[in-house]
Amino acid sequence: MSTVAQPLLSLERLAKIYPNGTAALRGVDLAVRSGTVHGLLGANGAGKSTLIRILCGATHATAGRILWRGAEVRWSYPAQARAAGIATLHQQIPLVGSLSVRENVFLGRSGWARRGREERRRLSRLMDSIGYHLQPDTPVAALAIGERQMVGVLQALAADAQVIVMDEPTASLAAPERQIVHRAIRRLAAEGRAVLLVTHFLDEVLTLTDALTVLRDGAAVMSSDTAAVDEAVIASAIAGRAIRRAARQTVRAGAEVAAEILGLRSPGRLAPCTFRVHGGEVLGIAGFLGSGRSELLQAIFGADQGARGEVRVLGRPVPRSPAAAVRAGIALVPEDRASQALVPGWPLWQNLTLAHLRRFSRWGVFPRRRLERAAATAAVKRLLIKTRDLDTAVGDLSGGNAQKVSLARWLCGPTRLLLLDEPTAGIDIGAKAEILDQIRGLSATGVAVILVDSQLTLLLEEADRILIMREGAIVAERVAADTDEQELIRLAAGGARGAGPPQRRQIHREARGDRCGAC
């Protein structure tokens, strides 16, 4: 990948000022060259999304120029940008759940070929090229979030564009799936295309990109060849300050058992799972996409109505429903916050108190708005949520601030077991550090935390213990301080069977009735 090619796409002094006076972009310069990967970085709210919307024709700049192949252009709507040769893979992929994988990949194409054998052959070639295969006729609604992301990648590749804008393409993917996307990105650049990669993973920036631009408060504060900078320099440019993080304190010896999971299972989703988590402990769950990590959290929370087994909090059985789980002190921050955690059109204060309406009402019927708004004000202050006011719709917040809202709602009531599914996916480095500090703070008060995260390095840093899942089963357990990323990958991939503490293996054999010989 050469960095000497002439710019295929250039932005000159690009600006966007909204009617209310908000300056989303303040004279940004950026040059993307053929055959390269260009990183676009910045905190949530820095202007990345606005820049992407202008590039794909979804909105207009108020000043500056866009040069495409050296000629000034101005796209009035997205179809013009696509026709010119720019494909955009958005973070929230606009897929149609009722349509199949094949239909979504070629969405918007016309002609009989769209439904014919040639389309199937082309889809097969696309999947072969990135080494990732899905059943073409599977409805997208039936796919996991990571699989839907891969459909979006295939959709972008099918457009045969010269510039591919990828907005957080690996945010919800486990390590092997991230590597598949990485290979696809390298392949595109090797073919002479250009990739504009928006990511919060600094390791991706350093290993994948040739050049990078950092936005902060709508301005480009750094433009550099990637080889000339390191992770600390990039992080400081993104945050505008050096990133400091509080040290995690290990779980106290003799801490009480906060929750017990006994033979929890779900047909076709989970093999029987049995384990304990102590007060103040962070228990990590590692595994590849489809390993059952999210399904386990949903079953613990009572959201899987087909699940069987027992969940106990402080020794008391919890009935199988989300409402009962909340009453028992179980909280869930799900992977897909947009559709599972938040009501985008509702104001911030209503989203924050949604899980504890009984606490903020008289006799469980009449809302006490003053109490709700007071609790919301305290939560906004505690988690440093950036918002105009409490009446701002959650859908208008940046990704990091929306994630803070999904976490903050559980601070409005008593929480004994906090279930976190990819809590830092798709958020900037500053918001990530703040959320992790909040998680540490909660565990320090005695809250038990179960943490699912595709970033194994994060699990190793944040967790006390790590359970490894594969094919819906817990196959091993490790003390975080005594393992490493390579071992976790081997265990999750099935390369190190029979590993794990003898006592834990016996617990799982008894729970599964000899169906699992791996643990």
Count of individual domains: 3
Q: Report the CATH superfamily of the largest domain.
A: P-loop containing nucleotide triphosphate hydrolases
Helices, by number, come to: 18
Per CATH, the class of the largest domain reads Alpha Beta
Given as residue ranges, the uncertain stretches (5+ residues, pLDDT < 50) are 496-519
Mean pLDDT: 82
Sheet with most strands: 6 strands, mixed
- Whole-Å distance between the termini? 45 Å
Radius of gyration, Cα only, in angstroms? 24 Å
Query: What coarse outline follows from CA principal-axis ratios?
Result: globular
Here the CATH topology of the largest domain equals: Rossmann fold
Number of strands: 22
Could you characterize the architecture of this molecule?
47% of the residues are buried. This protein folds into 3 domains: 233 residues, Rossmann fold (3-Layer(aba) Sandwich); 188 residues, Rossmann fold; 70 residues, no CATH class. The chain contains 18 helices and 22 strands. A 6-stranded mixed sheet has the order 6-7-8-3-9-10, sandwiched between helices. A 6-stranded mixed sheet has the order 16-19-20-13-21-22, with helices on both faces. The two termini are 45 Å apart. The C terminus is likely disordered. The chain is α/β, with parallel strands linked by helices.
List the helices and strands and how they pair.
Layout: E1 7-17, E2 23-33, E3 37-42, H1 48-55, E4 63-68, E5 71-73, H2 78-84, E6 86-89, H3 101-105, H4 117-130, H5 145-158, E7 163-167, H6 175-190, E8 194-198, H7 202-208, E9 211-216, E10 219-225, H8 231-239, E11 257-266, E12 270-278, E13 282-286, H9 293-300, E14 308-313, E15 316-317, H10 322-328, E16 330-333, H11 337-340, H12 348-353, E17 361-362, E18 366-367, H13 369-383, H14 399-408, E19 417-421, H15 429-444, E20 448-452, H16 456-462, E21 465-470, E22 473-479, H17 485-493, H18 502-512
Parallel strand pairs: 3-8, 3-9, 6-7, 7-8, 13-20, 13-21, 16-19, 19-20
Antiparallel strand pairs: 1-2, 1-4, 4-5, 9-10, 11-12, 11-14, 14-15, 17-18, 21-22
